[in-house]
Amino acid sequence: MSAAPFLDIQGLAKDYPRQRGLFRRFRGSVPALSGVDLAIERGETLALVGESGSGKSTLARCVLRVLEPSAGRILLDGEDLTALRGRALRLRRRRFQAVFQDPAGSLDPRQRVRSILGEPLALHTPLTAAGRRERVGELLASVGLPPSYGERFPHQLSGGERQRVGIARALAPAPELLVADEPVSALDASLRSQVLDLLVDLRERYGLTLLLISHDLRAVERLADRVAVLYLGRVVERAARRDLLALPLHPYTRSLLAAAPSLSPRAGRRGRRPVLPVSAEPSPLAQPEGCPYHPRCPAARERCRRERPDLVPVRVGREVACFYPEEFPAAPGP
């Protein structure tokens, strides 16, 4: 029998209250996640991809226990995080940390870098003041910044430097799981590559398990071992990164890859996929009957309009929520 995964997400659901009218009265709820199952092995990187509104960031916030799930369980190394409250949860937070999308908005502008990095050390480690100062220097060095940067304020740093400080802060309590929510989307192209290289190096150096939330397929290609595709709060495809990028099986995954810039500088017009129609934009407020993707799918059939497909294995190591994954015309991968 195989060991349990390091991070095991079981039936995760999250509904947001819906308010309407002058007095903002409660009018039902809006589903952001609907029974998501995900598993990540220790030391593995799983990328969660999907367009805006698919539920990616909601899932990340539930894993970090910033949001309370409506249903389901989140097990970290066999322990149910959703059952923890108060001090018990605070003690476990050392094991899972986050890197946020906006490096400027996630750092306190009134604190110097040494204070930003020293705060999680004071909360989660027994280090003395002298020990924390030494550790701050080590953290800065680990992300490629000199010790003198400890005296700077966030506004005195470039965007890439601020994100390096954000990564150093996440590493301060020596976590085992790192949740990276769009870690390079706020950076320009030259800085993205540097930060991605840094994340690869840190993952290998510290043996980190990584949950990567991204719509940037270059980041996915660089970091991920496996990929899960989220659409309207449900996983519609799951596969090894190499397999999914080379031959996506779900029509929605194909549309995501078609909309992204080519991952290969040598790819020309002949290697591109046709962009699929997007005439019916998805909305969690009014999800269609049957397959949630069928209003946008060029290959939808009557069964797709009546029944919702389950996520099922179709090949070794591959799962797809589609009735006809092998019948849609396939195109070569990027």
Write structural notes for this entry.
The chain has a domain of 182 residues: P-loop containing nucleotide triphosphate hydrolases (Rossmann fold, 3-Layer(aba) Sandwich), CATH 3.40.50.300. It has ten helices and twelve strands. The protein has 334 residues and is α/β, with parallel strands linked by helices. The chain is globular and about 70 Å long. The C terminus is likely disordered. Helix 6 links the parallel strand 7 and strand 8. The strands form two sheets. An eight-stranded mixed beta sheet has the order 6-7-8-3-9-10-12-11, with helices on both faces. Strands 2-1-4-5 form a four-stranded antiparallel beta sheet, covered by helices on one side. Helix 3 packs across helix 4.
What structural keywords apply?
334 residues, globular, 4-stranded antiparallel beta sheet, single chain, 8-stranded mixed beta sheet, Rossmann fold, disordered C terminus, 12 strands, alpha/beta
